[in-house]
Amino acid sequence: MPIATGQTSIGLTPTAIDGISQMPFRILLQNMDQTTECYIGGPDVTIANGYRLDKATAVELVVNPLDALYATSVKNGHKICWLREFL
Q1: CA-CA distance, 3 to 52, in Å (whole number)?
Q2: Taking phi first (over 0 means left), then psi (-120 to 50 degrees means alpha), and beta for anything else, what does residue 68 get?
Q3: Is 61 exposed, middle or buried (0-12, 13-18, 19+ CB in 10 A)?
Q4: Can you give the residue range of the structural domain that contains 35?
Q5: pTM of this prediction?
Q6: Tens digit of pLDDT for each residue in 20-67?
Q7: Domains in the chain: how many in total?
């Protein structure tokens, strides 16, 4: 399957990054903000319980079928980019 890329604007409430898939996939996320960290996790992610992604850093994850990845920030308009490859 082809590789897909995109950018997502996140804010104060959890935002789905790339939706739900019927297949497992690998996703590379990069925090595009140069000043603020963001937090990733499930649909209930907050700045208190999420995995912190520091400013201008990236992380690679494998997401299981029917799971979704969410992100949140301390400010609205926070940009993250992603690259997805189905396994």
Answers
A1: 25
A2: beta
A3: middle
A4: 4-86
A5: 0.92
A6: 889 999 999 999 999 999 999 999 999 999 999 999 999 999 999 999
A7: 1
